[in-house]
């Protein structure tokens, strides 16, 4: 058996010029172009059953037989870290978010989509949405639509997707089966993959035996060693089969943009993985490699749970003679108690937050704030600021704690920004109007409260205090839309001077258009309190608050009076005097 050498590739990136050095360990120094042939030879040695083919391959001067649609190997990586910063070379940036439609979009998925979106937009690249629906039994009805609609709602829509189209479609894996079977066939032909005829029964037995011995179950690669004649006979008999990829034992390190140099001797710890199932559907490993290559994906930003699989994927890229993307594995998202933010918890679905009145920009801000990837963190960043401030070199490997208790605060800050933006605020006014109609409907007697300028004023007065426009239709704010019923007796009980106070206030505020501000009103109310013998300033406030709102708590009396407006305040006070 030929001694096999491990290649360590040291990449140096100097202003778009990529220089490669391959260090042969225990073997001759190899140049880039030899890599495909080198690995083919390696496999033919592993599968020591087809020596004739083997010789042909070694003589073949032009072994590049790329699968249709897949690029030939050029072995140029596009991104390398150099003195801590990421240098994106000439390759066009194309990234993808590739969820399985096995559930609605949740926070973890939104985080992955967002980081891909930010990276794409920062580099003038393309953001692709691809649905990985090869596990047909787990598909959830409506999930595919929910994922795309939610990305649109969040303001991070894909550039290419099933509904938007694009040149590398279809964007749904179940519609791309011919690409995977072609890739699997080419891998069989080049000796990198083989037919596996093992029955489920045998695989179960292997598993049981391993567990019995206290070992991790793994396939024993038995069919890798089947004789070619046996394979032909089994195929001729129509025996059910899967296609497995022959892993090689060496750890080929790769440079992850987040985790740095990483390598796993995956072939030593795992059995050969199935790449194409008996039903013609690919497994994740083959499908994501074939699609990323076919869709010219330049960078893969995905969850750290895929880090160990990446070595497998790189072996597949090499076997398919295509250029792998650059990987950046994102750290896990955790709950404050340290548990994994799993999609099994119902309350992390984006639709849930949406129903609660969460603003998309607040969710995005919270997600990025709890994690890394920015030179500094601050609350209140909008999407454009996230794009310009994102720095992939700043993503750290340790898990991010997502504290959802902070969401109301993030929402408040972003709601204030919307209120201060004329166009956005107009939409908020309409939203409040709809909410009012839904909540109070016939109860609203004064149609003036549905007036645009009235709602606008309320929004501006409350913008530092509410975290959702829905707050405005909660009982504490009902006084803004409905006249309270307050009895004269209630006010008398608070002070025998109540009548004087109310009459005095009405005198002061009538016809004060220009000066009608919370500050002016507070100052005037203080003056009134000074003239009273039996009632303190704080009690004056309590009386007025009760008279105007029917409540004992709420915003300052000055603010309440401004929100309601002079006419409405006079009307409410007059009603009490006449009661
Ligand atoms: C991104 O982060 C790296 C590593 O900390 C730093 O060297 C680089 O200057 C940052 N880039 C920008 C644009 O801030």
TrEMBL record:
Record's keyword terms, sorted: Aminoacyl-tRNA synthetase, ATP-binding, Ligase, Nucleotide-binding, Protein biosynthesis
Residue ranges annotated for the Glutamyl/glutaminyl-tRNA synthetase class Ib catalytic domain, each copy included: 92-407
Domain Aminoacyl-tRNA synthetase class I anticodon-binding per the UniProt entry, residue ranges: 443-576
Pfam families hit by this protein: Anticodon_2 (PF19269), tRNA-synt_1c (PF00749)
EC number: 6.1.1.17, 6.1.1.24
Coiled-coil positions: none
Any single biological process term in GO: glutamyl-tRNA aminoacylation
PROSITE patterns listed in its UniProt record: AA_TRNA_LIGASE_I
Major location category of this protein: mitochondrion
Subcellular location field: Mitochondrion
GO molecular function (one): tRNA binding
GO cellular component annotations of the record: mitochondrion
Catalysed reaction, written as an equation: tRNA(Glx) + L-glutamate + ATP = L-glutamyl-tRNA(Glx) + AMP + diphosphate; tRNA(Glu) + L-glutamate + ATP = L-glutamyl-tRNA(Glu) + AMP + diphosphate; tRNA(Gln) + L-glutamate + ATP = L-glutamyl-tRNA(Gln) + AMP + diphosphate
Similarity section: Belongs to the class-I aminoacyl-tRNA synthetase family. Glutamate--tRNA ligase type 1 subfamily.
Descriptive protein name: Nondiscriminating glutamyl-tRNA synthetase EARS2, mitochondrial
Natural source organism: Ictalurus punctatus
Gene this chain is encoded by: ears2
């Amino acid at each position: 058996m030929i001694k096999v050498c491990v290649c360590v590739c040291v990449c140096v990136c100097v202003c778009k010029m990529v220089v490669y050095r391959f260090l042969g360990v225990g073997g001759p120094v190899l140049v880039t172009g030899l890599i495909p042939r080198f690995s083919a030879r390696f496999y033919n040695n592993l599968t020591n059953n087809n020596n004739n083919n083997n010789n042909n391959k070694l003589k073949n001067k032009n072994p590049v037989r790329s699968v249709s649609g897949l690029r030939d190997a050029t072995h140029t990586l596009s991104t390398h870290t150099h003195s801590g910063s990421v240098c994106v070379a000439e390759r066009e940036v194309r990234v993808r978010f590739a969820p399985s439609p096995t559930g609605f979009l949740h926070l973890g998925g939104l985080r992955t989509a967002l980081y891909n979106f930010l990276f794409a937009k920062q580099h003038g690249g393309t953001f692709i949405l691809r649905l990985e629906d090869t596990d047909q039994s787990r598909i959830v009805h409506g999930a595919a639509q929910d994922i795309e609609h939610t990305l649109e709602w969040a303001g991070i829509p894909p550039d290419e997707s099933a509904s938007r189209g694009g040149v590398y479609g279809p964007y749904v894996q179940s519609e791309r089966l011919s690409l995977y079977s072609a890739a699997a066939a080419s891998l069989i032909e080049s000796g990198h993959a083989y037919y596996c005829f093992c029955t489920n029964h045998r695989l179960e037995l292997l598993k049981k035996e391993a567990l019995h011995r206290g070992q991790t179950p793994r396939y024993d690669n038995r069919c890798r060693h089947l004789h070619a004649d046996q394979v032909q006979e089994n195929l001729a008999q129509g025996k059910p089969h899967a296609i497995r990829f022959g892993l090689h034992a060496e750890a080929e390190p790769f440079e992850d943009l987040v985790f740095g140099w990483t390598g796993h001797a995956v072939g030593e710890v795992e059995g050969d993985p199935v790449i194409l199932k008996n039903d013609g559907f690919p497994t994740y490993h083959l499908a994501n490699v074939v699609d990323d290559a076919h869709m010219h994906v330049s960078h893969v930003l995905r969850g750290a749970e895929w880090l160990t699989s990446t070595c497998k994927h790189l072996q597949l890229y090499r076997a398919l003679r295509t250029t792998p993307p650059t990987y950046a594995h994102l750290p896990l998202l955790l709950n404050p108690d340290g548990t994994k933010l799993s999609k099994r918890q119902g309350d992390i679905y984006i639709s849930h937050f949406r129903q609660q009145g969460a603003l998309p920009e607040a969710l995005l801000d919270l997600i990025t704030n709890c994690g890394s990837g920015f030179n500094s963190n601050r609350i209140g960043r909008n999407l454009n600021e996230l794009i310009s401030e994102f720095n992939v070199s700043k993503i750290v490997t340790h898990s991010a704690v997502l504290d959802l208790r902070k969401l109301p605060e993030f929402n408040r800050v972003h709601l204030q920004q919307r209120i201060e933006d004329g166009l956005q605020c107009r939409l908020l006014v309409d939203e409040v109007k709809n909410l009012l109609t839904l909540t109070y409907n016939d109860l609203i007697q004064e149609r003036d409260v549905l007036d645009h300028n009235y709602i606008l004023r309320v929004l501006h007065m409350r913008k530092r205090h509410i975290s959702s426009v829905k707050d405005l239709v909660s009982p504490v704010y009902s006084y803004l839309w409905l006249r309270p019923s307050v009895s004269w007796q209630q006010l008398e009980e608070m002070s025998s001077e109540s009548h004087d106070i109310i009459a005095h206030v009405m005198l002061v505020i009538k016809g004060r258009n220009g000066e009608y501000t919370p500050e002016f009103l507070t100052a005037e109310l203080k003056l009134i309190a000074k003239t009273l013998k039996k009632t303190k300033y704080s009690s004056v406030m309590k009386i007025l608050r009760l008279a105007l709102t029917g409540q004992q708590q709420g915003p300052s009396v000055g603010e309440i009076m401004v929100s309601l407006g002079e006419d409405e305040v006079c009307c409410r006070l007059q009603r009490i005097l006449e009661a």
